[in-house]
Amino acid sequence: MPFESEWYYNRMAAIDIISITDSVSLRQPIMFEIESAFNTPCYEYGFMDVDIAEPNIYIQFVQKRHKDRGACPQMEVPYNINESIRMLVPGQYNIHFMQTDSTSIDTVVTVY
């Protein structure tokens, strides 16, 4: 996704909960839901960045804030994100949900 000039982008806040399927057929997407909170109401979900280096899949969520937005109060704003990816080859994939501190929450999904 190209960056739009009127937005600031940065990595999402830490992920609190991930719900993900552990196996899917080849024709089905790997679906997951992320739950956490922004630290200010000025941010919103931007996009999901996926880097595939089979059998590893690195997923990072990017938040955005409009450049014209003024002062932003510090307050927790919960969010849920529902996304999916589709793999074209059967196998076991190590999915790494990247955190803001360069660690990751990891899981394995089987595509059959």
Structure summarized in a few sentences:
The chain has 112 residues and is mainly β.
Would you give an account of this structure?
Helix content is 0%, strand content 59%. The radius of gyration is 15 Å and the shape is elongated. The model has no long low-confidence stretch (mean pLDDT 89). By secondary structure, the chain is mainly β.
Provide key terms for this protein:
mainly beta; 112 residues
Topology:
Layout: E1 7-11, E2 17-20, E3 23-24, E4 30-38, E5 44-53, E6 56-66, E7 77-85, E8 91-98, E9 104-111
Parallel strand pairs: 3-9, 6-8
Antiparallel strand pairs: 1-6, 2-4, 4-7, 5-6, 8-9
Summed over residues and divided by their number, the pLDDT gives a mean of: 89
Category from helices, strands and their pairing: mainly beta
Can you tell me the residue ranges where pLDDT is under 50 for at least 5 consecutive residues? none
Number of H- or I-type helical stretches: 0
SSE order, as H and E?
Answer: EEEEEEEEE
Portion in beta strands: over 45%
* Estimated radius of gyration: 15 Å
The helicity comes to under 10%
Shape: elongated
Care to count the β-strands?
9
> What profile does the largest beta sheet have?
6 strands, mixed
C-alpha termini separation: 29 Å
